[in-house]
C-alpha cells in the first residue's frame, strides 16, 4: 500500500473539477443503475479471500492524482506506471479486484462507468465492510489518459514527514489541516513496509538510538517484526490493536505514542518532550484537538471521514476530458 496519500493535481488545469463540479450520486441512474451493487458483490468476494485487500484499495484510491484512476494504468514502452514509483513499488496492490469489478460492470453496462468511479465506490465499500460508516459517493469521473510517474515519486508525503510538511501537502490539494487529520485515520486498517519506519527503530534522525517518541512496548514489537538487516518489504499493521476494523483506535494509539509511522505520530508532535513552544501554531493545535476529539468520539470520526472522502473525491477529471476506459490498465487507444 502507498505509505501516504496523494499527488498534487495541476491547480490551473480546467480538466480537474473541484467541489463536485460535474459529479452526482445518481450519475448512472439511467445508464447503469446497478453499478454499486455489482461492485459491492465483487468486492465482498475478494475481501473474503484476502482480508487485506480492503485496506489496500482504500489507500490506492487516495493515491491517484485528481481521483482519475491514473494509478491503475500499467507501464507502456513510452510511459512509466505509477505502480513502479518508489512509494508504490511492492506496496500498492488490489488492482486485480478493480479488474474484476470492471469486467462485471462491463457485462451489464459496456463502456459506461469509469475506472476512477469504480475505485471510489470500492474505497467506500472497503470502509463499510471493515465496520465504518457509509457515505454517498459522487460519480461521473473520467479516466486519465496517462500515469503521473513523476508526481508519484515527488508529491506523496514521505512516511517520515513532519506535521508542517503534511499540512503543506494537503493544502496544495485544497484540503485543510482538519481534512489531513481525518484522512490520516485511513491508517486504522492499513499496513506498511518495514522500510518505511525501520530508521525510527534503530537510528532516529541519525542518533544511533530509537525514536524517543515511540512507545517502548510498540518499539519492541516492531523490532521483532523488522530486525536490523531483515526483509525491508515485510509488513506491519499501522493499527496493532484492531487492524481489521475501521474505528477510532488509530487516534487513541497516537495518544499512547503508538503511531507506527513518524508521519502518524507527527499529528501530536507539539506534545512531544522534544518539541518547543516555537512549534506551536493554529494548525498544530487543530491537529491535537482533532486527534483528541476522534479518540474520544468514534462516531464523530466516522462521519467526518466520509465527508473528507467526498471532498477529496471531488477533485476529479470530468466533462469531455479523459475517457471511460474499457480496460482499467490501459488507455483505450492502446488496447489490442
From TrEMBL:
Gene Ontology annotations of biological process type: hydrogen peroxide catabolic process; response to oxidative stress
Keyword S-adenosyl-L-methionine appears in the UniProt entry: no
Coiled-coil features, chain-numbered ranges: none
Listed InterPro entries: Haem_peroxidase, Haem_peroxidase_sf, Peroxidase_pln, Peroxidases_heam-ligand_BS, Secretory_peroxidase
Keywords per UniProt: Calcium, Disulfide bond, Glycoprotein, Heme, Hydrogen peroxide, Iron, Metal-binding, Oxidoreductase, Peroxidase, Secreted, Signal
Residue ranges constituting the Plant heme peroxidase family profile domain according to the UniProt record: 22-332
Residues binding Ca(2+) 2: 188, 239, 247
Predominant cellular place of this UniProt entry's protein: secreted
Gene3D superfamilies referenced in this protein's UniProt entry, alphabetically: 1.10.520.10, Peroxidase, domain 2
Keyword Cell membrane found: no
Binding site for heme b: 187
Cysteine disulfide partners in this protein: 32-109, 115-328, 194-226
Cofactor(s) demanded: Ca(2+); heme b
Cellular compartment(s): Secreted
Positions annotated to bind Ca(2+) 1: 66, 68, 70, 82
E.C. no: 1.11.1.7
Positions bound to substrate: 157
Stated family: Belongs to the peroxidase family. Classical plant (class III) peroxidase subfamily. Belongs to the peroxidase family. Ascorbate peroxidase subfamily.
Main function: Removal of H(2)O(2), oxidation of toxic reductants, biosynthesis and degradation of lignin, suberization, auxin catabolism, response to environmental stresses such as wounding, pathogen attack and oxidative stress. These functions might be dependent on each isozyme/isoform in each plant tissue.
PANTHER family attached to this UniProt entry: PEROXIDASE 59, PEROXIDASE 72-RELATED
Name of the protein this chain belongs to: Peroxidase
Organism annotation: Selaginella moellendorffii
Amino acid at each position: 500500500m502507498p505509505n501516504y496519500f496523494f499527488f498534487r493535481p495541476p491547480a490551473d488545469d480546467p480538466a480537474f473539477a473541484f467541489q463536485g463540479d460535474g459529479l452526482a450520486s445518481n450519475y448512472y441512474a439511467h445508464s447503469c443503475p446497478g453499478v454499486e451493487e455489482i461492485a459491492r458483490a465483487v468486492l465482498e468476494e475478494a475481501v473474503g479471500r484476502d482480508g487485506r485487500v480492503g485496506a489496500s484499495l482504500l489507500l490506492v484510491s487516495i493515491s491517484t492524482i485528481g481521483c482519475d484512476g491514473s494509478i491503475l494504468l500499467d507501464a507502456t514502452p513510452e510511459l512509466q506506471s505509477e505502480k513502479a514509483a518508489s512509494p508504490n513499488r511492492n506496496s500498492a496492490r488490489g488492482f486485480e479486484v478493480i479488474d474484476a469489478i470492471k469486467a462485471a460492470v462491463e457485462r451489464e453496462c459496456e463502456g459506461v462507468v469509469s475506472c476512477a468511479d469504480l475505485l471510489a465506490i470500492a474505497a467506500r465499500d472497503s470502509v463499510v465492510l471493515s465496520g465504518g460508516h457509509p457515505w454517498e459517493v459522487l460519480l461521473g469521473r473520467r479516466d486519465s489518459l496517462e500515469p503521473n510517474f513523476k508526481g508519484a515519486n515527488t508529491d506523496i508525503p514521505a512516511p517520515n514527514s513532519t506535521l508542517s510538511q503534511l499540512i503543506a501537502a494537503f493544502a496544495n490539494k485544497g484540503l485543510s489541516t482538519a481534512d489531513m487529520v481525518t484522512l490520516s485515520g485511513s491508517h486504522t486498517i492499513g499496513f506498511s513496509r518495514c522500510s518505511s519506519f525501520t530508521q525510527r527503530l534503530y537510528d532516529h534522525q541519525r542518533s544511533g538510538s530509537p525514536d524517543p517518541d515511540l512507545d517502548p512496548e510498540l518499539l519492541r514489537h516492531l523490532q521483532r517484526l523488522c530486525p536490523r538487516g531483515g526483509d525491508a518489504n515485510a509488513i506491519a499493521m499501522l493499527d496493532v490493536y484492531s487492524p481489521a476494523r475501521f474505528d477510532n483506535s488509530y487516534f487513541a494509539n497516537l495518544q499512547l505514542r503508538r503511531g507506527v509511522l513518524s508521519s502518524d505520530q507527527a499529528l501530536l508532535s507539539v506534545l512531544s518532550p522534544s518539541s518547543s513552544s516555537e512549534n506551536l501554531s493554529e494548525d498544530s493545535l487543530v491537529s491535537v484537538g482533532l486527534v483528541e476529539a476522534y479518540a474520544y468520539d468514534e462516531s464523530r470520526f466516522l462521519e467526518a471521514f466520509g465527508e473528507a472522502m467526498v471532498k477529496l473525491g471531488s477533485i476529479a477529471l470530468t466533462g469531455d476530458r479523459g475517457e471511460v476506459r474499457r480496460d482499467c490498465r490501459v488507455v483505450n487507444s492502446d488496447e489490442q
